Backbone:
């Protein structure tokens, strides 16, 4: 049973001014910067050596472990160096990055493509998705193949395609659905095929009527694929909230959506899957919304992964010096320290915000107005959690739900006192991570010490046993000698 | 380099100053009617109370080293002073207003650490201190004397009433409907006989009756409160549950014994219930944050109010009932929380289950 509305949430100004602008392809710049970690899980490991020639679409770094993703070259050229480069993170701290030099020749290896991918076995589709390095392109960047395999093993009867795009400004999924409807539909069919044909629901927020119309037209011929327009309310596009809205069920704490029979994929992911499985094109480009008051030509751009944001902004032009550069939407996006940071797989937007758009406000003390409680889609009490974190009472904050916070920013948005609530929760979660790592380290040390103690005790015991044995042996021998001597003396006497 | 700021990078449309100004705006019609009705002394007392509240706030902020301009511009002291002025007898002497503002701002709010930190509603705390300390001054009600009507004091006379006192007390004072009811019931009279000469529901609703500025026009404060709900400054939970509880209690008891218990309309329109339900009980600082908690809070206020009005020693109990429930707010907030997504159990149900598990 679908729900009538999600809990809480806010309705920011949509500012989706780029929803009418067709996708433009951006020429590949001279250098591309490919971080080895663009996904959730273990970083990929370089598969090329410095100065080695690479062709477009070749794997340049391989996935490591179960949760990881391959990285492919978006251009042909050669690997210049493997270095530390600023990561797409507010800290701007360096991360391992492969630098490709573009030779402009667009050389590409021949790839074999299936005649009809819709006849592929589900495991084969998952394998091809895995090979193509596809991750959740809505921003979560969880490797899509892992999700598919999980869905296959749990046999999820519902597939939700997330076309909500609830963040203001962003229109890249909207444009994909309007312009490349057939490819998106193909990807959705492949996803459905990979999951043994579940009931498929394409969720689109009602503020995208053209996309809804296009998708409805495209899935007219499919009985088990339908479009469901959902209310325009942030954060409708959040996985947990969307699942609850559509199925009426909540994902229990500590469980995955697959545990309640739901697999969820993003529109852009479906598009990338069609490209990969049908055409053999791995994930090397993505659609990025470039917008914000400081941009001269805002729009949606098809950008090679690894392109520097400064290059992209130079291509789109700047009207003024941006007050803040964001990667992602304005609600959850990261503020970047500078623009020399590459576009990664999960980057759905680059916003160069002008001063007027951000609208700085004075911070006031909390008046307990409960706007944040009403706005929280997870049912938390942000004001209480923030007050506890301010006093460094991390455990108390965890007790009332810090781990459940999805950092959607609804609370900070709604706060009339302009308290940076999300900042506190980020801090708290960071502290939890540090603590978990420390705990892991301590456990490891403990394990080693215990192992050593056991080994030492065993050696000690063995030594003691050896000594005892030898003593016994000596005593035996002495006894034997004594007995022999006595016998001898008896003989002598005799 | 500046630290990159945290998400979200856009913000909503409200701010603390805007909230306070909207509340003040919604109070304006009722206040103006009250001042019109009680003339110059009411205006003087009102201005003195509000000004001294802002003054005390500034002094406290200065002493505690907080930015006076930013914190004073949140208009919270203006609102506290305003609400306090609404609860004072309109012809009370000037020092009642100043002392009240001192109690509200310094004792009621700043001693706890300023805005957002106080346990009790400052205006109600001040009113209660004044009521128990100066019962005579705080219960001297006068019949309405609108500007220009016969018997209304002129500017000079009005100023002398506020600065020195009422010259001929017996000539102007009159008991409020609730007070009259209490006295006469005490003398063994029956309710219909008592109310007939003094109580008119229409006058009580519009506000052409005696009382403090905030006890006159039930309708104007009701409309102001509905405006606040419409603007999403307050939610319906506290006022609705408080009014409903009072009405229900009055209905039950007036049906059982109509000779000794007044009906729901008398209770709803009488005294400061409307002001209390929409403006005082909904003070976010001193009321619970969750919806269920708010309903418990409002119901508690309504219940206590009816008990105090009916069986207590004071004719009116808005301030007492709200203060008592203010004290219960941390407890309510501790036990009643919204259900967290994906976790089992919610609100009262989860609380009861936990209790069961513990025992």
Residues:
């Amino acid at each position: 049973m679908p729900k009538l509305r999600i809990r809480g949430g806010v309705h920011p100004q949509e500012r989706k001014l780029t929803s009418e602008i067709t996708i433009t392809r951006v020429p590949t710049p001279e250098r591309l910067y490919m971080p080895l970690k663009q996904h959730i899980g273990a970083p990929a490991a370089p598969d090329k050596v410095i100065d080695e020639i690479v062709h477009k679409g070749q794997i340049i770094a391989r996935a490591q472990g179960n949760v990881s993703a391959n990285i492919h070259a978006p251009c042909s050229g050669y690997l210049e160096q493997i270095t530390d480069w600023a990561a797409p993170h507010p800290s701007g701290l360096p991360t391992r990055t492969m630098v490709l030099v573009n030779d402009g020749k667009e050389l590409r290896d021949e790839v074999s493509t299936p005649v009809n991918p819709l006849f592929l076995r589900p495991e084969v589709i998952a394998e091809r998705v895995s090979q193509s390095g596809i991750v959740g392109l809505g921003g979560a960047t969880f490797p899509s193949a892992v999700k598919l395999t999980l869905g296959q093993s749990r046999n999820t009867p519902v597939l939700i395609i997330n076309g909500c795009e609830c963040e203001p400004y962003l229109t890249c999924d909207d444009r994909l659905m309007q312009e490349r409807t057939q490819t998106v539909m193909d990807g959705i069919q492949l996803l459905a095929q990979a999951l043994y044909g579940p009931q498929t629901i394409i969720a689109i927020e009602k503020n995208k009527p053209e996309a809804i119309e296009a998708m409805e037209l495209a899935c007219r011929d499919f009985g088990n694929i339908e479009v469901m327009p959902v209310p325009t309310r942030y954060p409708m596009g959040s996985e947990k909230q969307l699942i609850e809205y559509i199925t009426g069920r909540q994902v229990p704490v500590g469980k995955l959506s697959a545990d309640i029979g739901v697999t969820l994929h993003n529109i852009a992911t479906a598009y990338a899957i069609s490209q990969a499985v049908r055409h053999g094109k791995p994930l090397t480009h993505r659609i990025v919304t470039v917008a914000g008051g400081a941009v001269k030509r805002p729009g949606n751009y098809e950008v090679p992964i690894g392109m520097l944001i400064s290059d992209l902004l130079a291509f789109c032009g700047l009207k003024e010096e941006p007050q803040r550069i964001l990667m992602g939407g304005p609600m959850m996006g990261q503020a970047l320290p500078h623009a020399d940071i590459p576009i990664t797989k999960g980057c759905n937007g680059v916003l160069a915000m002008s001063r007027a758009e951000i609208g700085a406000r004075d911070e006031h003390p909390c008046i307990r107005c409960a706007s944040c409680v009403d706005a929280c889609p997870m049912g938390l009490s942000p004001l209480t959690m923030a007050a506890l974190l301010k006093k460094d009472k991390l455990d108390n904050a965890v007790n009332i739900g810090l781990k459940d916070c999805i950092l959607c920013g609804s609370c900070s948005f709604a706060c009339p006192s302009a308290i940076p609530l999300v900042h506190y929760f980020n801090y708290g979660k960071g502290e939890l991570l540090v603590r978990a790592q420390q705990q892991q380290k301590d456990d490891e040390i403990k394990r080693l010490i215990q192992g050593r103690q056991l080994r030492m005790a065993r050696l000690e015991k063995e030594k003691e046993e050896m000594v005892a044995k030898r003593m016994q042996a000596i005593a035996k021998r002495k006894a034997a000698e004594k007995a022999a001597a006595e016998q001898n003396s008896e003989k002598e006497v005799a | 380099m500046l630290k990159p700021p945290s998400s979200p990078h856009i913000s909503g449309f409200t701010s603390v100053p805007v909230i306070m100004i909207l509340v003040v705006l919604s109070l304006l019609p009722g206040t103006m009617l009250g001042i019109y009705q009680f003339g110059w002394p009411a205006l003087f007392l009102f201005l003195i109370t509000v000004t001294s509240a802002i003054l005390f706030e500034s002094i406290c902020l200065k002493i505690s080293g907080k930015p006076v301009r930013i914190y004073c511009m949140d208009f919270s002291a203006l609102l506290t002073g305003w609400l306090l002025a609404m609860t004072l007898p309109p012809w009370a002497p000037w020092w009642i207003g100043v002392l009240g503002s001192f109690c509200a701002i310094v004792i009621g709010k700043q001693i706890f650490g300023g805005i957002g930190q106080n346990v009790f509603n400052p205006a109600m705390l001040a009113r209660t201190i004044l009521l128990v300390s100066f019962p005579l001054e705080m219960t001297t009600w006068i019949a309405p004397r609108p500007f220009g009507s016969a018997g209304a004091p002129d500017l000079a006379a009005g100023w002398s009433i506020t600065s020195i006192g009422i010259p001929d007390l017996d000539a102007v004072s009159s008991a409020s409907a609730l007070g009259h009811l209490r006295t006469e019931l005490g003398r063994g009279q029956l309710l219909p006989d008592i109310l007939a000469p003094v109580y008119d529901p229409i006058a009580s609703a519009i506000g052409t009756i005696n009382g403090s500025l905030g006890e006159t026009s039930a309708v104007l404060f009701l409309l102001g409160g509905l405006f606040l709900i419409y603007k999403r400054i307050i939610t319906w939970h506290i006022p609705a549950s408080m009014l409903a509880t009072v009405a229900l209690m009055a209905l039950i008891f007036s049906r059982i014994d109509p000779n000794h218990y007044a009906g729901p309309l008398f209770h709803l329109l009488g005294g400061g219930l409307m002001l209390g339900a929409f403006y005082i009980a909904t003070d976010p600082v001193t009321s619970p944050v969750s919806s269920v908690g708010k309903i418990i809070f409002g119901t508690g206020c309504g219940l206590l109010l009816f008990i105090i009005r009916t069986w207590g020693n004071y004719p009116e109990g808005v301030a007492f009932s709200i203060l008592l429930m203010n004290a219960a707010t941390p407890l309510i907030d501790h036990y009643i929380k919204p259900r967290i997504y994906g976790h089992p159990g919610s609100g009262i149900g989860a609380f009861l289950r936990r209790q069961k598990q513990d025992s």
Summary: The two ends of chain B are 57 Å apart (CA to CA). Chain B has a mean pLDDT of 88.
